[in-house]
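Shape matters. Shown next:

___
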Amino acid sequence: MLSVSPNPLILDGGGTQVLGIQIDDAPAFEGFTLELGYDAERLAVTALEAGALIAAPGASLTLESGSEPGLLRIGYARSEAPDGAPGSESDGERAGWPQDGGPLVMITLAPLAVSEGPIAITIGPSELRLTDGTTVELPASRAEVLVQSAPDPESLAAFEAQAEGLIASAQSGGPGLGRTLRAAFSDLGHRLGILEPGPRVVWLGLLGLALIVVALGWSYGRRPLASDAASARADDRA
């Protein structure tokens, strides 16, 4: 019922790739949980995004790190019923709820080290929570990733920082923050004619923001206090 694409996924040191987890022939559901297993010494998960099938108002993804590196638990819950639900029911289907097939989760992977052979990505155990209150266990699925070249030190540091930031933002209730930042700088890159901005543009963008903050602080610091200005005017009159 679960499938992963592309399979195999090929990575090189210059950038990231998106791995999609899809579901097929699913009854109407309101949530799911799944575990993602990967080689944390060679791969990093830098972003997480809801797939088209589940992206809707009132829907949220959660992300938790497992007891060991390379294990993530991804959850989805619909906090409110869609417009028209339960609506007309046919063969157990409920109008407005995610069902049938489509993308569940889009996971951005980054290379950390070259792999001598395929790296296994495992999906499972997984559980689907149906709209009638029952649960369905989903068969495990897997994919293979090939890392053809290692990233340079700058890119490696960026990938590791993005992965740590994703976990931190998820723990504070905001999974996908890394994706949001990357999307923003990706749009900037396209506007500047850069087809694939990569981590360098992200960090250059952050550096640019920092320089703006410093410049504003310097400008504010040069402004004289009101009391100093008054004293200066008094001295001039004297």
Summary: Residues 87-92, 175-199 have pLDDT under 50 and may be disordered. The chain has four helices and 13 strands. The domain at 2-153 is CATH 2.60.40.680 (Immunoglobulin-like). The first helix runs from residue 153 to 171.
